[in-house]
Design brief:
Order of helices and strands: EHHHEHHEHEHEHEHHEEHEHEH
Radius of gyration: 18 Å
Largest sheet: 8 strands, parallel
Shape: globular
Strand content: 5-15%
Structural class: alpha/beta
Oligomer: single chain
Strand order of the largest sheet: 6-5-4-3-2-1-10-7
Number of strands: 10
Length: 308
């Protein structure tokens, strides 16, 4: 089976692509013109011959698609008219109730169910979530990612995973840098504590490498639980203690690079991915590409070479 190629909508967030001067300007313009935003994204996807899309935080989120098209079925038809489809949606940390706050479970489940219902109607079957971020090293009192913490996260994941499964959607966890699901040990512990029927994995090759881990080894160990993966390259592991606040994602950016220009073993990764339930989709992730069509073409070329 030849896999379909996909990308995250964040690929299209570079201000230069829109002729604007800042990420805030892109968000504001897209909020005011959701139809034009999606029209341009869909045209670029078709031009790059990348047929799948992962929805994410604004402006390329579920609410934006609903503003532009009215409902999930209409969004699905607009994509299909160009040979495109939704493959997944990503729940950003800032867009959902805090998993660390006791008493948030009902709100967490309701938020996930709303997203899963949209995905099912849009023709997709993977909801990607993350675990909360770590705290800056040296902060007091310290926050430990220990067995007690991970057990609490597993308990929530089970409830959410079971709820979205009612919609035919898999809940898969993303291995975000500086989160509590970053290091190889974090991933192994969380996977060991969760039921494979309800909790899946979405490994990100770049982020695992940024934590000093081996993305290929992780993919091989957990191959039967990978519903989707993010194909992304890293320059080197993060070698300093970053301040974990709203700027942490920008701090991580210099360590990331386009596919084939970093340290990820793409041949090994492609081989491991071919043995997973998510083998049918190759999601090339390129944060804010100034020329997304060229970047996607280059990224898919690297992936195809690795697969060959």
């Amino acid at each position: 089976m030849t896999p379909r190629f996909a990308t995250d909508v964040v690929t299209f967030y570079h201000p230069g692509f829109w002729g604007l001067d800042s990420p805030d300007a892109v968000r504001d313009w897209a909020l005011a013109h959701p139809e034009r935003f999606w029209e341009r994204v869909m045209d670029a996807l078709a031009e790059a011959q990348v047929t799948g899309i992962e929805l994410t935080f604004a402006p390329g989120d579920i609410d934006s698609a609903l503003r532009a098209f009215g409902d999930a079925s209409s969004f699905r038809r607009a994509l299909a008219a160009r040979g495109l489809c939704v493959v997944s949606a990503f729940i950003a940390d800032s867009d959902s109730p805090d998993w660390r706050q006791a008493g948030n479970l009902s709100a967490i489940v309701a938020d996930a169910e709303r997203r899963a219902a949209f995905l099912a109607e849009a023709g997709a079957d993977v909801l990607v979530a993350g675990l909360p971020m770590r705290t800056t090293f040296g902060t007091r009192p310290p926050f430990f990612v220990d067995a007690a913490y991970m057990t609490r996260m597993a308990d929530i994941a089970h409830v959410v995973g079971e709820a979205v499964a009612q919609h035919g959607v898999k809940l898969a966890f993303h291995t975000e840098s500086n989160s509590t699901l970053w290091y190889e040990r974090d991933i192994d512990l969380f996977m060991a504590l969760t039921d494979p029927r309800y909790v899946w994995l979405c490994p990100d090759s770049c982020h695992i490498a940024l934590g000093g881990g081996d993305p290929v080894a992780v993919a091989r160990r957990h191959s039967q639980r990978i519903a989707l993966a993010h194909w992304k390259d890293a320059i080197k592991p993060i070698d300093v203690e970053l301040t974990i606040d709203e700027t942490v994602f920008a701090q991580q950016q210099p360590y990331m690079t386009e596919l084939g220009t970093g340290i990820v073993d793409w041949t090994g990764w492609a081989d491991a991915m071919s043995r997973t339930p998510g083998a049918g989709t190759v999601l090339v992730e390129l944060d804010e590409a100034a020329d997304p069509v060229a970047a996607l073409r280059a990224g898919t070329a690297v992936a195809k070479k690795a697969q060959a």
